[in-house]
Design brief:
With 106 residues, the protein is α+β, with helices and mostly antiparallel strands.
C-alpha cells in the first residue's frame, strides 16, 4: 500500500474511532486511550485491539460492535476485526490531554 493511502486510511479510521463514546464518560474512546492497536493490511483489512476503562463495563459486549461498525463505514476498508484485550490494564495515563480537559482530570 502506498504511504499516502495508508496515511489517508489511518486518518479516516482515527476520525471514525473518535465518533464512538463510552456512554458513562463524555470523551471518545480514542482520546480515552482505549484503542491499543490499529493494523491495516495490504488488502485494507483492519485489526483493532481495544480495552475498556473497567472489565465490568456495562457496554462491554456492545462497544466492540460500535467500533467495528464505525471503522467498517470508512471508504476503502475491506473488513474489521475488533479484539478486546485487558493487558496492559487501562489507566488514566493513557488519556490524551483533550480527554483530560473534557473530564477536568489534571
Amino acid at each position: 500500500m502506498a504511504p499516502e493511502e495508508l496515511a489517508r486510511l489511518t486518518d479516516d479510521i482515527v476520525a471514525a474511532l473518535k465518533t464512538v463514546y463510552d456512554p458513562e464518560i463524555p470523551a471518545d474512546i480514542y482520546e480515552l486511550g482505549l484503542i491499543y492497536r490499529v493494523d491495516i493490511d495490504d488488502s485494507h483489512f483492519v485489526a483493532i485491539d481495544m480495552t475498556l476503562t473497567a472489565p465490568g463495563c456495562p457496554v462491554a459486549g456492545e462497544m466492540p460492535v460500535w467500533v467495528e461498525n464505525a471503522v467498517a463505514a470508512v471508504p476503502g476498508i475491506a473488513g474489521v476485526e475488533v479484539k478486546m484485550v485487558f493487558d496492559p490494564p487501562w489507566d488514566q495515563s493513557r488519556m490524551s490531554d483533550e480527554a483530560r480537559a473534557a473530564l477536568d482530570m489534571w
